[in-house]
Specification:
Helices cover about 50% and strands about 15% of the residues. It is α/β, with parallel strands linked by helices and about 700 residues long. The protein folds into four domains: about 90 residues, no CATH class; about 250 residues, Rossmann fold (3-Layer(aba) Sandwich), CATH 3.40.50.1460; about 70 residues, Immunoglobulin-like; about 190 residues, Serine Threonine Protein Phosphatase 5, Tetratricopeptide repeat, CATH 1.25.40.10.
Length: about 700
């Protein structure tokens, strides 16, 4: 639980600040690897806003779009990828469909980005949806746009230009817009003229900006199921380019010029020159790094390729296709997956379906300017070695008994099963779970990864892997894995719950709240989903809502601790908060979270100046976690503020008791330093009492 107090208090009527000071974010460049032997690739701190609107609240069915929401989700995935944009996940905000209201768009563009960006940052803004013109001015259409009140419900290009040019700081600024979709809303009569105005406005926003727009004057932007299973054609090539296909010189870096050339060339070819993406050239830093994929580093001075196309067809529904190790989506029988814009040469193709032997990986050649059709065949149901199944079943028996001794026996059985059948993904999954329970963290991570490598669409294994990553503190990779889980299974409540925890622990409370709300909606009886929703709401200064969710957690987790002790240990760690395993007993995890929930309620009541209720809640927290530094610190503050109201010496003595406990818990913390000052003031005040 983060304990960064939101308010400040005074002791003995002296205004001594209590808010913990957060360390400023590092401004150093992040060196991610060498582009060449002598030139490391340095990526500055990066922020992005991703907006995608397919369904509009106030527009008729004929004006709705199909793919901008998917466009935005896939752009987000590419930006946070370690083989793509390398943006920290907590620094990428996304507004999809109903979240993309005019109020939220203004909040992100005019408040959030200006408040976090600095002069040396990289900033990217992406929009997919309707663009239109009214009164001779260009607008982007948010979810709640009203064509009868455009000035108040749409986002003017002039405001966007002012945001990017003045309010939002950064040395590298990128604007990518896939607006003007087919069927775009144009309240004025001459739609061709409107598109010209809109596109020229986009290009004129800010001359120090790299602006890449979907089409040029008087053109519209198309979307189709024929590109990657369903995308705006422009965005499809933006994503492929950022993944590395645009890296024509083979240095691993996708530069602004490379992306612009790749997208323009391929979109123009794909639409028979009906759509021509346009970029503002020559005004941006030529060293701007849009993405870096070290797997694409090749010999220097390669000639620019003429791109080809992959057409993937399968004999079975729900087949996932990987090209060069990157998932390209799901392909179904009778509906080929078209992947244009592939660099010529050899590419590895792998097709997987849960419960079947994969097809591949195998190499396929892509030829310049040609279609390469690849027929993948999922034929053989995965039949595990009989002896391996017997060892796995024995391991499950030991696993379900619980306890360290039984987990060790189970681990031996799972190891034996994998020795007999190395692709036995279930055995690898459960081996990871027992290793996790036994605190063999690196072994657990390796086992979970083996399960995923054997069955890349094994969503349960990905969720377990993410939970272990949370334990290990690798929050970025956990977010990436959980992003895959929630995209493939939008109703996976556990995936949303773990994602909410990952975001909250990264300090991204807004996205954490969104994920937690999804978790609560999908699995309302998951107590920990309510806990993390409360944590995020508390940090977002929404104490009343947070108290309600903390109480929901306490109600749903109010089982007898003896029952808690019978729970499988891994399950306890998985449900009660992966990344929080600090004790060997699952009942201790249960007690710790209940203590933290009561402490959260105390903190919220303190924010609301409900001091008597806060004292009771903090005291309840200390029954679960008696030596907790933050519970004692908050209780000391509340007693001190009660003294300011009532001037009772007994309240000062109670405050001192808890400040002393803070120093004893960890004398090196900021809270301990402040507590020592409070103790000195309290001793001075007590000495003056008659």
């Amino acid at each position: 639980m983060s304990r960064c107090p939101i308010l400040a208090a005074a002791v003995l009527m002296l205004a001594l600040p209590l808010a913990a000071q957060q360390k400023p974010d590092s401004r150093d460049l992040n060196t991610v690897g060498p582009a060449t032997k002598n030139a490391p690739v340095a990526i500055p701190r990066s922020y992005a806003l991703v907006i995608g609107v397919s369904q509009y609240k106030n527009l008729p069915a004929t004006a709705q779009l199909e793919y901008p929401n998917r466009d935005a989700e896939d752009v987000y995935t590419t930006l946070i990828s370690a083989e793509g944009g390398q943006f920290p996940a907590e620094n990428v905000h996304k507004l999809i469909n109903e979240k993309a209201t005019i109020a939220n768009v203004r909040q992100e563009l005019e408040v959030w980005l200006p408040s976090v960006t600095k002069d040396d940052d990289r900033v990217l803004i992406y929009f997919a949806g309707h663009g239109f013109v009214a009164g001779g001015k260009g607008y982007l259409a948010p979810y709640d746009v009203d064509v009868h009140n455009i000035a108040a419900t749409a986002y003017p290009m002039t405001d966007l230009g002012a945001d990017i040019g003045g309010k939002i700081k950064g040395k590298w600024k990128v604007l990518i817009t896939d607006a003007c979709h087919s069927g775009a809303i144009t309240p004025q009569a001459d739609s061709s003229s409107d598109r010209a105005t809109l596109n020229s406005t986009l290009l004129d926003l800010q001359k120090s900006l790299f602006s890449l727009t979907a089409s040029r004057d008087r053109e519209q932007s198309f979307e189709s199921a024929n590109w990657g299973g369903g995308h705006g054609i422009f965005t499809y090539y933006v994503i492929k380019g950022l993944e590395g296909e645009a890296d024509t010189n083979g240095d691993g870096v996708v530069s602004a010029d490379e992306l612009a050339e790749y997208v323009h060339t391929n979109v123009r070819l794909a639409t028979q020159a009906q759509q021509n993406p346009t970029s503002e050239r020559g005004s941006f830093d030529p060293d701007m790094v849009l993405a870096y994929n070290p797997t694409h580093v090749k010999a220097a001075n390669l000639p620019p390729p003429q791109f080809g196309n992959l057409i993937i067809e399968t004999n079975m529904d729900s087949t996932e296709v990987f090209v060069d190790g990157v998932s390209q989506g799901i392909v179904n029988k009778g509906t080929p997956l078209r992947l244009p814009g592939i660099a010529p040469g050899a590419h590895t193709i792998k097709a997987v379906r849960m419960g079947y032997e994969p097809d591949g990986p195998r190499e396929e050649q892509v030829y310049p300017g040609q279609d390469t059709t690849v027929s993948v065949r999922i034929l053989i149901a995965r039949l595990h070695n009989h002896a391996a199944v017997e060892r796995f079943d024995e391991g499950i028996k030991d696993y379900t008994k619980g306890g360290a001794a039984n987990y060790k026996k189970a681990a031996d059985e799972f190891h034996a099963a994998l020795a007999l059948d190395p692709k036995y993904s279930q055995a690898a999954l459960y081996l990871g779970r027992v290793d996790n329970a036994l605190y063999q963290d690196q072994d657990a991570l390796a086992a979970f990864k083996q399960a995923i490598d054997s069955d890349p669409d094994y969503v349960e294994a990905r969720a377990s892997y993410a939970a272990a990553l949370l334990d290990a503190g690798d929050l970025d990779e956990a977010v990436r894995q959980l992003n895959v889980v929630t995209l493939r299974q939008p109703d996976n409540g556990m995936g949303w719950y773990l994602l909410s925890q990952a975001y909250a622990r990264k300090g991204d409370y807004k996205d954490g709240k969104t994920a937690a709300e999804q978790a609560v909606a999908k699995t309302p009886k998951n107590a920990e989903a309510h806990f993390w929703l409360a944590e995020c709401e508390r940090q977002l200064n929404q104490p009343t809502d947070a108290i309600r969710e903390y109480n929901s957690y306490l109600s749903l987790s109010n089982f007898d601790s003896g029952f808690g002790g019978q729970l499988n240990y891994y399950l306890a760690g998985y449900l009660f908060g992966a990344g929080r395993k600090t004790r060997a007993a699952q009942t201790d995890i249960w007690r710790e979270l209940r203590g933290q929930a009561n402490l959260g309620i105390c903190d919220c009541q303190w924010m609301l100046k409900q001091y008597d209720a806060a004292i009771a809640s903090c005291q309840q927290a200390l029954t679960y976690i008696p030596k907790d530094l933050f519970a004692n610190y908050r209780l000391g503050i509340v007693y001190a503020q009660k003294f300011n109201q009532q001037n009772s010496v007994s309240l000062l003595a109670a405050a001192k008791e808890h400040f002393v406990a803070v120093v004893a818990a960890n004398p090196d913390t900021d809270e301990a330093g402040r507590s020592r000052k409070y103790i000195q003031m309290i001793d001075s005040a007590l000495a003056q009492q008659p």
